[in-house]
């Protein structure tokens, strides 16, 4: 079994190649973001990051954020969301709840209040359905602040929302008029 340090190292590597730089090890994401598991294991090993199927399965099954998912027969794997490479997410637009949340660092607040939330180098803005998750996300970037998003109002005004495999809400941007700091 992998040590916690090895587990974290492989998980970060998987995030890199499945979300941002698949070409770094020579894999190609298909139109729905899937990669052949055998190819991933072999090409990762050639890049110096070694793991077997059971170790990969353990990482997927125990990741508290459910960052990765297998298809039904575990022959394909993908990152659940957070891609910066252009892909077809395969997600259908959905009606969001009335309110969603976004966690960020307080140092970003003035810019967000002025300009809204933008996806930056990602494909979507990530939103959560609960404040606790938003606080945890914001804590990764500094002193956290939680923003409340008027998601249903945005949806009614024509903005598309998608729900990822790991229950993160996604949208292209959040104009400032739809948010407030809590």
Highest CATH level, the class of the largest domain: Alpha Beta
What is the CATH T-level topology of the largest domain? ADP-ribosylation fold
**Overall average residue pLDDT:** 89
In order across it, which strands form the biggest sheet? 1-3-2
Decide which structural class fits the backbone: alpha+beta
**Order of H and E elements:** HEHHEEEHEEHEHEEEE
Number of helices: 6
Gross geometry: elongated
Rg measurement, Å: 17 Å
Write the layout of secondary structure elements.
Blueprint: H1 4-20, E1 35-36, H2 37-46, H3 53-62, E2 68-70, E3 76-79, E4 100-105, H4 109-115, E5 117-118, E6 125-127, H5 131-139, E7 144-149, H6 151-156, E8 162-163, E9 169-171, E10 173-174, E11 179-181
Antiparallel strand pairs: 1-3, 2-3, 4-7, 5-10, 6-9, 7-11, 8-9
Give a brief outline of the structure:
The protein has 182 residues and is of the alpha+beta class. The chain has helices at 4-20, 37-46, 53-62, 109-115, 131-139, 151-156, and strands spanning 35-36, 68-70, 76-79, 100-105, 117-118, 125-127, 144-149, 162-163, 169-171, 173-174, 179-181.
Please describe the structure with a list of short key phrases separated by commas or semicolons.
182 residues, alpha+beta, Arc Repressor Mutant, subunit A, ADP-ribosylation fold, 2 domains, three-stranded antiparallel beta sheet, 20% strand, elongated
Write structural notes for this entry.
Removes the 2'-phosphate from RNA via an intermediate in which the phosphate is ADP-ribosylated by NAD followed by a presumed transesterification to release the RNA and generate ADP-ribose 1''-2''-cyclic phosphate (APPR>P). May function as an ADP-ribosylase. Belongs to the KptA/TPT1 family. By secondary structure, this protein is an alpha+beta fold. It has two domains: 4-79, RNA 2'-phosphotransferase, Tpt1/KptA family, N-terminal domain (Arc Repressor Mutant, subunit A, Orthogonal Bundle); 100-181, ADP-ribosylation fold (Alpha-Beta Barrel). 32% of the residues lie in helices and 20% in strands. It has helices at residues 4-20, 37-46, 53-62, 109-115, 131-139, 151-156, and strands at residues 35-36, 68-70, 76-79, 100-105, 117-118, 125-127, 144-149, 162-163, 169-171, 173-174, 179-181. The strands form four sheets. It has a three-stranded antiparallel sheet. Strands 4-7-11 form a three-stranded antiparallel sheet. The chain has a three-stranded antiparallel sheet with strand order 6-9-8, with no helix packed on it.
């Amino acid at each position: 079994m992998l040590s916690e340090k090895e587990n974290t190292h492989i998980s970060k590597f998987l995030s890199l190649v499945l979300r941002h730089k698949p070409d770094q090890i020579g894999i190609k994401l298909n139109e729905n973001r899937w990669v052949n598991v055998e190819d991933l294991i072999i090409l990762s090993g050639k890049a110096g990051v070694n793991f077997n199927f059971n170790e990969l399965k353990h990482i997927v099954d125990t990741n508290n954020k459910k960052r990765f998912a297998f298809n039904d027969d575990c022959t394909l794997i993908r990152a659940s969301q957070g891609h910066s490479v252009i892909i077809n997410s395969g997600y259908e637009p959905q009606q969001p709840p009335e309110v969603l949340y976004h966690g960020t660092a307080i140092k970003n607040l003035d810019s967000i209040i002025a300009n809204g939330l933008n996806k930056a180098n990602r494909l979507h803005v990530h939103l959560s359905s609960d404040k606790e998750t938003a606080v945890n996300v914001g804590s990764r970037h500094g002193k956290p602040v939680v923003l409340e998003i008027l998601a249903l109002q945005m949806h009614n005004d024509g903005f598309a929302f998608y729900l990822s495999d790991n229950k993160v809400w996604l949208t292209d941007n959040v104009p400032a008029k739809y948010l407030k700091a809590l």
